[in-house]
Design brief:
With 135 residues, the chain is α/β, with parallel strands linked by helices. The protein has one domain: STAS domain (Transcription Regulator spoIIAA). Helices cover 27% and strands 28% of the residues. The protein has helices at residues 57-66, 87-103, 116-124; strands at 33-40, 43-52, 74-85, 106-110, 131-133. The chain has a five-stranded mixed beta sheet with strand order 1-2-3-4-5. The chain is globular, with a radius of gyration of 20 Å.
Length: 135
């Protein structure tokens, strides 16, 4: 049984190293992703750097889609500057692949030849939905 005297300070969960969980607003800063769009000759090169996770996935996806502008002839999504991607980021890639396929637009994702982003993309089977290549 777990009980705490009502006059005592409430217990807070601790991390694996014994450190207390962060108090809201005092923990690590939110993850960030920087999206840069370069459109040339009807093609869109969209570069994403930083990290994509649940905290910023919606905003990152909106920025990527806005980068298309008018209908491009081809889209290259360059993730070589990405340090981290979680399942919400992988869903962005899969939705992008579906949208491009439906619109008849050629698309590809560029990821480093090795590292955590490459492993996540391979594990999720992104290459079955959109071309994946190393730089």
């Amino acid at each position: 049984m777990f009980a705490v005297d009502v006059n005592e300070r409430p217990m807070r969960p601790t991390g694996g190293d014994g450190s207390a969980t962060p108090i809201p607003g005092q923990g690590p800063e939110a993850t960030t992703a920087v999206v840069i769009v370069d459109r040339r000759d009807g093609a869109a090169l969209i570069t994403v750097a930083g990290e994509i996770d649940l905290a910023n996935a919606e905003t990152t996806e909106q920025q990527i889609v806005q980068g298309f502008g008018g209908p491009p002839t081809a889209v290259t999504l360059d993730l070589t500057g990405l340090r981290y991607i979680d399942s919400s980021g992988l869903w962005i890639l899969l939705r992008l692949a579906a949208s491009l396929t439906d619109a008849g637009i050629a698309g590809e994702v560029v990821v480093p030849a090795d590292g955590p982003v490459r492993r996540m993309v391979e594990t999720a089977g992104v290459a079955a939905a959109i071309a994946v290549r190393a730089p």
